[in-house]
Amino acid sequence: MRSARPKIRETNPHRQQNERRDYVFKPPPLIFLIAQPQGPGPPSLTMSTFERYLTVWVALCIVVGIALGHFFPAVFHTIGSAEIAKVNLPVAVLIWLMIIPMLVKIDFAALSRVKEHWRGISVTLLVNWAVKPFSMAFLGWLFIGWLFKPYLPADQINSYIAGLILLAAAPCTAMVFVWSNLSDGEPHFTLSQVALNDVIMVFAFAPIVGLLLGISAITVPWETLLLSVILYIVVPVIVAQTIRRSVLASGGSNALTWLLSTLQPISLVALLATLVLLFGFQGEQILAQPLIIAMLAVPILIQVYFNSGLAYVLNRAAGEAHCVAGPSALIGASNFFELAVAAAISLFGFNSGAALATVVGVLIEVPVMLSVVKIVNSTRGWYEAGATVRQRIASEKARG
Fold this sequence. Notes:
The protein has a two-stranded antiparallel ribbon with strand order 1-2. The chain has helices at 13-20, 49-52, 54-71, 73-80, 89-104, 118-147, 157-168, 175-182, 187-215, 222-288, 292-318, 322-333, 337-348, 353-378, 380-384, 387-399; strands spanning 83-84, 87-88. The relative contact order is 0.18. Helix content is 74%, strand content 1%. The protein has 400 residues and is mostly helical. Helix 3 (54-71) crosses helix 10 (222-288).
C-alpha cells in the first residue's frame, strides 16, 4: 500500500492569502464608511449602505430636482444668480463640504513609499494622465459629436463633450479606497498612489482640460478654469491637510477617525444637494429628451472598462502583484466626479450640457465600479498564471 504524499505547506504569505479566498465577489458590508488611520498608514475602508446605493439616491435626486425646478422656478433662478466673480456661492459651499472631508483622509507622508510599488505606480500614472483624459475626449467626439449628434440638442453638443472631458481629467481620491478594499488591494499602494495623484492634479488639471477643450474647438475660459483649480483643488487641499495635522496633533488617530466618521455623511448630503440643484435647472431639458442620460452614459461606460482593462493587463505584463494590479486598474478607471461637477458649473453654468454630463458620471459610478471589482476578483487565477507574474513570485520565494 502506497503511503500518502506529505502536504507541503506554502511559505509565501501572499500566495497563502490568495489561496484562502474564493474567487467570488462578495458584496460590501452594510456599515458606515469610516477611515481608521494609524499614523501615516492607509485608511481601512468599507462601504456604507448609503454609498452602496448611491445610484438610487442620485435617481431620487433627479426626480426631486426636476419636480422642484418645475414648481419653484423662481427659487432656482435666485440660487443661480448668487454669484461673485462667476462663482456660485451656494454651490461653492456645497462643493467644499463634498471635497474637504475626502482630502482629510489623505496622508501625503505616504509619498515616501511610492518606490515600493514602482511598477504599479508607473502603470497607474500612465493610464490616469496620458490615456484616460484623451480616450474620453475621443469617445466624446465619436459618440456625442458624431453617432448621437442627430438625437441631441445642437446647441449643447460641445458642452456635453466638455463635461465628459472634465469628468475624466482627474482620478478619484475617495471612493477608490473602497474599491481597493473590496478587491483585496495593497492599502499602502492605494494611499501612496492617491497622494501622488492629488499632487499632480494641482498642476495638471487645468493644462489637460485647456488642451482638450481647445482641440475640441471649445472656447476655454482660462480665468474661470484657473479660479476653479484654486477654489476646488488648492484651497481644499490646504484646508484639509491643516485640519488633519491639527486633529492628529491634539487628539491622535482616534480623534481623526471620529472626525472622518462625522464628516462623511455631510459630504454625501452635500453631493446630493448639489445634484438636486443641477437637476432643478436641467429638468425641462431632460423631460424633453429623456434619452440624453443614456447616450451620455455610453462613452463613460466604455472609457471605464477600457482604462481599467488596460491598467490591469499592463500590470500583468510588468509582473506586478495582483494586490497592486487590482487597485491600479480601479484608480486608472476612476473619475473625480465631485471636482468635475464643480468645474462644469463654474465654467459653463447650471443649465449647461457639461454639468449634466458630469452628473451622469455620478449616476453610474457605483454599479460600474463594483462590476470592475468583480472582474478583478474573478480573474485572479488568470492574472497570476502570467509568465512575468510567476517569475516574480518565484524570485521572491528564492530571496526569502
